[in-house]
Amino acid sequence: MRCVYFSTANLRPGADKKVVFLTARVHPGESPASFVCQGVIDLLVSQNPVARVLRDHVVFKIVPMLNPDGVYLGNYRCSLMGFDLNRHWQDPSPWAHPTLHAVKQLIVGMNGDPRVSLEFYIDVHAHSTMMNGFMYGNVFEEEERDHRQAVFPRLVCHNAPDFSFSNTSFNRDVMKAGTGRRFLGGLLDDTSYCYTLEVSFYSYMAGVNSVPVPYTEETCILLHNGQTLNCPLTWAYCICDRIMLAPF
């Protein structure tokens, strides 16, 4: 029987906590988001040295399926009640949007705890028209904060051959005001980074003149041979780059 070691130093009562919060499948038809989320979880519970560092210093909160009733019913975008949950972050109803309401309350509670630093909020989606992986980020009045927002996507692009920084964009589109990225970007302070992470339904191109490579479940989930660095592993390396720059 294989024993997996977990450090609990960052979980002891009263300890300051650095938190990375991931959500996925708010839109039930975007199944690649579940594969990405599975890859992140597989890495975090592995014996990979990066995973050990992350477990020692970061608390991960992962909600792999924000819209379980929509997934169960086979809906593409909405919940059982017919709502696009990713437009109701501003004022979710405990009756009509119970999963969203619960997650928002958890994040708001952490934001009010002086012992908790919410480092990242990343909402994982799949895109039906664009290729590659890419991100949406927020736009702020402070130029320096804008520049800092671009660092993480650039790190991902440097590490992940299927990630496109040129497809990544930063906006404050009024139509997206009710999304997790936009709402939490306004709620949390300037030490937190909020992104929507998109992965194509179809394929990616690793270079300008390369042939499109179809995405499969296996290319979104961490490969079992321990040698190939797919998207979740390289995203974790990028998170590791950030936390290693900060004092513990």
Automatic annotation (TrEMBL):
<dbReference type="InterPro" id="IPR000834">
    <property type="entry name" value="Peptidase_M14"/>
</dbReference>
<dbReference type="InterPro" id="IPR050821">
    <property type="entry name" value="Cytosolic_carboxypeptidase"/>
</dbReference>
<feature type="active site" description="Proton donor/acceptor">
    <location>
        <position position="198"/>
    </location>
</feature>
<feature type="domain" description="Peptidase M14">
    <location>
        <begin position="1"/>
        <end position="230"/>
    </location>
</feature>
<dbReference type="Pfam" id="PF00246">
    <property type="entry name" value="Peptidase_M14"/>
</dbReference>
<comment type="similarity">
    <text>Belongs to the peptidase M14 family.</text>
</comment>
<protein>
    <submittedName>
        <fullName>Cytosolic carboxypeptidase 6-like</fullName>
    </submittedName>
</protein>
